[in-house]
């Protein structure tokens, strides 16, 4: 009789699976209709586009989107498991998606980030996110940000010393600057990554990202964030690294708490970390730790990679580099300390930074989940769709950017900006769920560009951005070491 039980059990299970799949397909009927309007692969139950994706050859999630976009053209569709993904570089669609109250949730594949970092500002569901974002936004007011300029300057002086010596990897050099500055400002002490060549924290953080990237290959293919091979080979080191990071964040919080007891800070002077510490009733230490880590990671790689790209592009364009140099010497001088009042005067420098982030956006894509149908032009984007806003492609879309691969900072002259839809330029994402650290990042990058350019001539062998092969999941960087050199000015 045991075999009968097994047969009946298996039969019941099969019926349940068929019903579940059938119900899932029935609920998606409006998505199938919508998908017919765009390039992409046909949907296959359970497997989604497993076979098609396996055949195109890609190394991480970003790569999969890039390869598909090149092969099929944009906008396009694909399926991972039963999740529908729509990829777009259309400014009109992007404006609506990033601003609509029904698409504030992050796309389902952000769960890969959740598996690693748990819930936090970057991935909260909309309702929780709104409350937290309102709380943290108060700490990014302009007067408080202005008070950070001397930290940017102090740490950029250390960076200048580092660039005078040998270093291994430029992304790490700038990553170390952003990490040290962040801790100097928010924790109240420097971790001296810039001056400690044995400290591998940034490289390890990059390894975590790489792991997420590799896991995402399986996630893209099967539709869930599990990479057994990766878990066996890299999983343990990733878990132990995350534990180290957690310990580090707890020690930062303890240190800062003690500092605040000695020297209290109040009102609009409270940074996001001080604000969390002062509201211990709202923030359990484990929540504080997650939020701190996410801010730290969101600030470090992004700004570090952006700086690496800015200097490489300046190295490729000596005439533009000369104009930045002349502006810095005129507005600040050869040796004067860089102060808050100098920053608004660096107008050409700002255009260079903006143009660099257009051509090489540090975050190549962001994605949202549609909680309801959303009308965009003559199409109804269906509830349940995951929409990837493909920033890199948008920023190089010739519909908005003539001669898109040309590095031309004058695209950001006010009269040129006025000619374009604002949503065709979104290095910090857009709408209410954009980057909270946007102004902080712009100020930090201006200080670094000014201080480095008055000390060094920069060169690079690249003739076109096409020569740089990119990789990335959350942030983008070159697959190999980047070619960019700093020679001291006499
Ligand atoms: C050049 C530097 C930076 C770039 C290009 C950048 C870009 C972005 C982008 C595109 C997003 C949206 C991500 C998504 O929707 O998946 C984002 C979110 C975020 N960024 Fe930045 N970021 C930069 C620097 C910073 C800095 C310096 C900080 C902190 C001081 C920061 C903190 C955050 C946080 C906390 C979020 C999540 C915001 C939310 O969901 O409400 N970022 N950033």
From TrEMBL:
<dbReference type="GO" id="GO:0016705">
    <property type="term" value="F:oxidoreductase activity, acting on paired donors, with incorporation or reduction of molecular oxygen"/>
</dbReference>
<dbReference type="InterPro" id="IPR002401">
    <property type="entry name" value="Cyt_P450_E_grp-I"/>
</dbReference>
<keyword id="KW-0349">Heme</keyword>
<feature type="transmembrane region" description="Helical">
    <location>
        <begin position="6"/>
        <end position="26"/>
    </location>
</feature>
<keyword id="KW-0812">Transmembrane</keyword>
<dbReference type="InterPro" id="IPR050196">
    <property type="entry name" value="Cytochrome_P450_Monoox"/>
</dbReference>
<dbReference type="Pfam" id="PF00067">
    <property type="entry name" value="p450"/>
</dbReference>
<keyword id="KW-0503">Monooxygenase</keyword>
<comment type="similarity">
    <text>Belongs to the cytochrome P450 family.</text>
</comment>
<keyword id="KW-0408">Iron</keyword>
<dbReference type="GO" id="GO:0005789">
    <property type="term" value="C:endoplasmic reticulum membrane"/>
</dbReference>
<comment type="function">
    <text>May be involved in the metabolism of insect hormones and in the breakdown of synthetic insecticides.</text>
</comment>
<dbReference type="InterPro" id="IPR017972">
    <property type="entry name" value="Cyt_P450_CS"/>
</dbReference>
<keyword id="KW-0492">Microsome</keyword>
<dbReference type="GO" id="GO:0020037">
    <property type="term" value="F:heme binding"/>
</dbReference>
<keyword id="KW-0479">Metal-binding</keyword>
<keyword id="KW-1133">Transmembrane helix</keyword>
<dbReference type="InterPro" id="IPR001128">
    <property type="entry name" value="Cyt_P450"/>
</dbReference>
<dbReference type="GO" id="GO:0004497">
    <property type="term" value="F:monooxygenase activity"/>
</dbReference>
<feature type="binding site" description="axial binding residue">
    <location>
        <position position="435"/>
    </location>
    <ligand>
        <name>heme</name>
    </ligand>
</feature>
<keyword id="KW-0256">Endoplasmic reticulum</keyword>
<keyword id="KW-0560">Oxidoreductase</keyword>
<protein>
    <submittedName>
        <fullName>Probable cytochrome P450 4d20</fullName>
    </submittedName>
</protein>
<dbReference type="InterPro" id="IPR036396">
    <property type="entry name" value="Cyt_P450_sf"/>
</dbReference>
<dbReference type="GO" id="GO:0005506">
    <property type="term" value="F:iron ion binding"/>
</dbReference>
<keyword id="KW-0472">Membrane</keyword>
């Amino acid at each position: 009789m045991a075999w009968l039980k097994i047969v009946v059990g298996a039969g019941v299970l099969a019926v349940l699976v068929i019903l579940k799949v059938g119900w899932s397909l029935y609920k998606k009927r409006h998505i199938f209709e919508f998908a017919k309007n765009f390039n992409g692969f046909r949907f296959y139950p359970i497997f989604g586009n497993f076979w098609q994706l396996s055949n195109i050859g890609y190394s991480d999630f970003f790569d999969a989107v890039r390869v598909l976009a090149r092969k099929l053209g944009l906008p396009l569709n694909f399926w991972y498991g039963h999740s529908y993904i729509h990829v777009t570089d259309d400014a009109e669609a992007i404006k609506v998606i990033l601003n609509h109250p029904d698409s504030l949730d992050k796309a389902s594949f952000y769960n890969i980030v959740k598996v690693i970092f748990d819930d936090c500002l970057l991935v909260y569901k909309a309702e929780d996110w709104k409350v937290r974002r309102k709380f943290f936004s108060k700490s990014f007011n302009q007067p408080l940000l202005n008070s950070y300029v001397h930290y940017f300057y102090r740490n950029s002086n250390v960076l200048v010393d580092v660039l005078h010596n040998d270093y291994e990897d430029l992304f790490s050099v700038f990553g170390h600057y952003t990490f040290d500055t962040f801790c100097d400002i928010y924790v109240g002490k420097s971790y001296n990554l810039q001056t400690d060549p044995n400290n591998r924290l940034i490289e390890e953080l990059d390894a975590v990202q790489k792991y997420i990237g590799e896991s995402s290959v399986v996630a893209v293919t099967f539709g869930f964030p599990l990479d057994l091979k990766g878990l066996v080979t890299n999983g343990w080191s990733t878990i132990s690294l995350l534990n180290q990071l957690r310990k580090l964040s707890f020690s930062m919080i303890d240190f800062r708490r003690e500092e605040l007891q000695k020297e209290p800070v109040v009102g609009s002077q409270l940074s996001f970390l001080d604000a969390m510490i002062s509201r211990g009733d709202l923030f359990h230490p484990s929540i504080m730790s997650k939020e701190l880590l996410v801010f730290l990671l969101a600030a470090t790689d992004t700004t570090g990679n952006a700086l690496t790209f800015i200097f490489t592009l300046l190295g490729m364009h000596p005439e533009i580099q000369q104009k930045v140099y002349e502006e810095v010497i005129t507005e600040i001088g050869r040796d004067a300390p860089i102060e808050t009042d100098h920053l608004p005067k660096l107008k050409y420098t700002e255009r260079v930074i903006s143009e660099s982030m257009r051509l090489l956006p540090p975050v190549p894509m962001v994605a949202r989940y549609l909680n309801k149908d959303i009308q965009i032009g003559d199409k109804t984007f269906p509830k349940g769709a995951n929409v990837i806003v493909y920033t890199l492609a948008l920023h190089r879309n010739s519909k908005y950017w003539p001669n898109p691969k040309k590095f031309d900072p004058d695209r950001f002259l006010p009269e040129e900006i006025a000619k374009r839809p604002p949503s065709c330029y979104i290095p910090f994402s857009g709408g209410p769920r954009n980057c909270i650290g946007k102004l902080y990042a712009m100020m930090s990058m201006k200080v670094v560009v000014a201080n480095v350019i008055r000390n060094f001539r920069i060169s690079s062998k690249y003739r076109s951005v096409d020569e740089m092969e990119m990789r990335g999941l959350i942030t983008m960087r070159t697959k190999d070491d980047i070619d960019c050199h700093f020679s001291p000015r006499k």
